[in-house]
Structure formats: C-alpha cells, structure tokens
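Retry 2 of 3 after timeout on previous attempt. Resubmitting structure tokens to design endpoint.
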C-alpha cells in the first residue's frame, strides 16, 4: 500500500499492532527513534513505517 492511500492510525492502534503498552510508544517517540507524526495535538502513524522501523532493527536500539 502506498503512503498516499494508507490510512493514519492512532497510538492505540499502533500499541495493539506491536503488542506493547501505549506508554512504551510514547517513550519511543520521546527518544525520537520512532516514526511518528504530530497532527494537531495528536500523534498519528502509518503502519508501513512502523513495520519498516521494526524490520530495520531500530526497535532493538531503544
């Protein structure tokens, strides 16, 4: 799925996708190592970017 047609997802959906707590996602964002986009006051994500981040091994560095 291309980024142009991929839906943005919430922190709840990302946490569920990765099977981690929302606080873990927030900590990764604070460390600036996680692919997140601030839209207004909310964080939004693309699951393709999340999966790419995991597969690259960057998640192991956090």
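Retry 2 succeeded. Sequence:
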């Amino acid at each position: 799925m291309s980024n142009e047609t991929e839906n943005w997802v919430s922190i709840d959906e990302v946490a569920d996708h990765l099977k981690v707590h929302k606080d873990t996602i927030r900590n990764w964002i604070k460390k600036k190592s996680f692919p997140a986009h601030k839209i207004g006051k909310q964080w939004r994500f693309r699951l393709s970017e999340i999966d790419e981040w995991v597969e690259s091994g960057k998640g192991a560095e956090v």
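Attempt log closed. The radius of gyration is 11 Å.
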